[in-house]
Design goal:
heterodimer, A: mainly alpha, Non-ribosomal Peptide Synthetase Peptidyl Carrier Protein, Chain A, 4 helices, 0% strand, globular, B: alpha/beta, Rossmann fold, Aminopeptidase, 3 domains, eight-stranded mixed beta sheet, five-stranded parallel beta sheet, 24 helices, Acyl carrier protein (chain A), ACP-like_sf (chain A), PP-bd_ACP (chain A)
């Protein structure tokens, strides 16, 4: 799957998970930019991504992600394995 | 998130609309609280993200949702793990169960202290119930004990912890507890032999759960069988080790929707909102084929073919529900003689006509028939569950009567039993003698109403019933049924004050109160306990705190017999006046004029509709009634 395609899907998931009316997707987006993004909704975010792409992360693979772009990369890497 | 056919789906609910996000946005933005639209959304299989978003939208209408016919409920959660995921999504699930829910979560790690400490935040929140969500780690049952005695001690200690927290709920919070069972681990230490080792985690968990359920069975508290819920989903899917290690979330995030639904069933049952009657279609629901076209020989029912056995299983399930007190009714588009044919003449049928409290076979629309059924049984349409194989009929009923539960059973009869029973419409907290006999009592009720049509003159009819009313003070034998009536009666209930069994017991012992339980029997059978009154003895006036009655015996002049009896006791005690109050609720308009009809005088009316009433006993004479009263005087009389 192309990177753009993955980030578009993750943008959709973010709207569902963080209850956003609209989202200007940017790789640099992080919990600092979105009010509803807290430790708990973060877990729903991860699980929603896992379901959507049919993959499972380990704690180590996700605990150091700094922004959405890194999440997109993590998904892309997992999918290409 | 969950696929429709996944183990996490609420398969009895229709799929949510495609544009949930847009609908929620519109609902949130509208000026008034659109209860119907909110409820319609909640009645679909929403995932955890959607539940949270609907819950958030609901919070915008904080004050208003209470006035919309939803039953308010305050739930406190005391847990040994993270429960925020549930507490943030529960309000939307609760809406599905006609509840307006507020959740108070004890802060993480503070659960036990908050319960045991008097005047804690949790106690001050005055919840209607406290959920005790403790996992096996917190109760010392997460490691094997390879010594039988140690295993037994560990189980008893864990039960002791729970017992002290339950006692704290009663003493410090004044609310019943809902206690979760423990989910056994997926992993075995020995393999199958774990089942034979008393101290394996699996064996200890199972033993703990069995003892917990037995010990809580007869009290005011409820068991929330999470172990069974996890088994339904499958432990492999239920357990999510990463979530546990990362965030102390006890199970897979996708299981939240199911967990919430199972919990809300218990809350609704505590509020008396569990369903009471199963209405069944006939063709392709109770048997395969169409009786009017295929005839007696053509329909498929009974042993020998898979389809016939699937329909037999549906009948067996209906029969079992009837035995535990759920009423059965038929609503079928058929000519009546055709519809009745299999019940008389098909040897394989398990269900017979006598099992049904109402039998509607005609060509009217199903919604109208359901209204007739509810009216005939003297229950609300919100107490009905409607099982029909035809998606068009299901949709018509959902649209005209959204309060009726309509399981989305699909088109495969092999799945009907599973789908209907997984929906949990008939959640019960107790099983009393009254439940065992209910279906028969309703049967007698229908004979009464047929008899009434013949009897013509009402006074004549009432006399012919040969009614005997038994009025006695609260006692231990009646306590459970008294609490059940106090918590379930909605329509004929002057003040809608709910009480736990412990409170009922306290009232029974209180010399400052006159608390009476009333039973009614007649020539057709025993109606059981049907009425409760509680008066406060305030010197020379007695004030009516509670007056409620089962609608089954409406129009039988029981109220007048009860007042005559109370007046007699009051006079004997030198009391001059009785007072009463009516507090309006969403459901009790039926008794707005209760005191006026009994001859009380209005002394005060508040803007919220509450009214106060007074009866000078000097001006009261008891009427001539068609009811014989058999009474025992109260001990404190």
């Amino acid at each position: 799957m192309e990177r753009d395609e993955i980030s578009a899907i993750i943008g959709e998931i973010m709207c569902d998970v963080f209850d956003l009316e609209e989202l200007k997707y940017d790789d640099a987006l992080s919990a600092d930019d979105i009010e509803e993004w807290d430790s708990l909704s973060h877990i729903r975010f991860i699980v929603s991504i896992e379901k959507r792409f049919g993959l499972v992360f380990s704690s180590a693979e996700i605990e150091h992600l700094q922004n959405v772009g890194e999440m997109v990369d993590a998904v892309k890497q997992k999918l290409s394995k | 998130m969950a696929r429709p056919d996944s183990a996490f789906s609420l398969s009895w609910l229709p799929a949510p609309p495609d544009n949930v996000r847009a609908i929620v946005r519109a609902l949130k933005g509208s000026a008034a609280f659109d209860a119907k639209a909110f409820r319609g959304l909640a009645l679909t299989d929403l995932d955890v993200n959607q539940l949270e978003s609907v819950s958030r939208a609901l919070s915008v209408f904080e004050g208003e949702s209470e006035k919309s016919g939803l039953a308010p409920f305050k739930l406190a959660i005391a847990a040994s793990h993270t429960m925020e995921m549930a507490s943030k999504t529960l309000p939307a699930t609760a809406l599905r169960h006609a509840l307006h829910l507020k959740v108070h979560c004890a802060s993480y790690g503070q659960a036990a202290q908050q319960l045991l400490e008097q005047g804690s935040d949790l106690a001050r929140a005055r919840p209607d119930a406290v959920l005790l969500a403790f996992d096996r780690h917190s109760l010392g049952l997460d490691r094997a004990r390879l010594d039988n005695l140690q295993a037994e001690t560990a189980i008893e200690e864990a039960l002791g912890v729970i017992a002290s927290l339950v006692a704290a709920c009663h003493r410090n919070v004044g609310a019943p507890a809902i206690v979760q069972t423990l989910v056994p681990p997926q992993e075995s230490l020995f393999g199958s032999f774990d089942a034979s080792i008393a101290g394996s985690v699996r064996a200890m968990t199972i033993e703990f759960n069995a003892k917990l359920a037995r010990r809580l069975r007869d009290g005011p508290d409820a068991v929330f069988d999470v172990a069974h819920l996890a088994a339904i989903v499958g432990l492999q899917q239920w357990q999510a080790p990463r979530l546990w290690y990362d965030a102390k979330i006890p199970f897979a995030v996708e299981a939240i929707a199911l967990y919430n639904d199972h919990l809300c069933r218990i809350l609704a049952a505590l509020r008396g909102l569990a369903r009471k009657c199963l209405v069944l279609d006939l063709d392709n629901t109770l048997w395969g084929g169409v009786i009017g076209d295929d005839g007696l020989e053509g329909i498929r029912i009974g042993q020998g073919c898979g389809t016939g056995e699937a329909f037999l299983a549906i009948q067996a399930m209906a029969l079992e529900l009837r035995q535990r007190g759920i009423l059965l009714a038929v609503s079928s588009k058929n000519d009546e003689p055709n519809a009745r044919l299999p019940f008389y003449h098909h040897a394989e049928m398990l269900l017979r006509e006598t099992h049904f409290s109402v039998f509607q076979a005609n060509w009217d629309d199903k919604a109208s028939n359901l209204v007739t059924i509810a009216r005939t049984l003297n229950i609300g349409t919100e107490a009905l569950v409607f099982l029909d194989d035809n998606p068009a009929e299901r949709e018509q009923v959902r649209q005209s009567l959204p309060e009726v539960a309509v399981p989305e059973v699909g088109d495969n009869p092999s799945e009907y039993v599973r789908t209907l029973m997984q929906a949990g419409y008939f959640e019960a907290l107790a099983f009393a003698e009254e439940d065992r006999r209910r279906a028969d009592m309703y049967g007698a009720n229908l004979e009464r109403s047929a008899f009434r049509q013949q009897a013509g003159d009402l006074a004549e009819y009432l006399r012919s019933l040969e009614m005997v009313c038994t009025i006695v003070p609260f006692d231990d034998a009646g306590r459970s049924r008294i609490a059940q009536l106090i918590n379930k009666s909605n329509q004929f209930n002057l003040t809608t004050r709910r009480r736990t069994e412990a409170e009922v017991q306290a009232i029974a012992c209180d010399p400052g109160k006159l608390a009476l339980q009333i039973r009614l029997a007649d020539r057709f059978g025993d109606n059981g306990m049907i009425c409760i009154v509680i008066f406060d003895r305030l010197g020379d006036l007695w004030h009516c705190d509670t007056w409620l009655m089962s609608c089954r015996v409406l129009g039988r002049r029981v109220e007048e017999a009860v007042l005559a009896h109370v007046a007699k006791i009051a006079r004997a005690a030198g009391v001059g006046r009785l007072t009463g109050e009516y507090i309006p609720s969403a459901k009790n308009a039926l008794v707005r004029d209760h005191f006026a009809k009994l001859g009380f005088v209005l002394i005060n009316a508040l803007p919220d509709g509450t009214t106060h009433w007074e009866l000078e006993l000097a001006h009261y004479t008891s009427p001539d009634l068609p009811i014989k009263v058999a009474a025992a005087m109260p001990a404190h009389g």
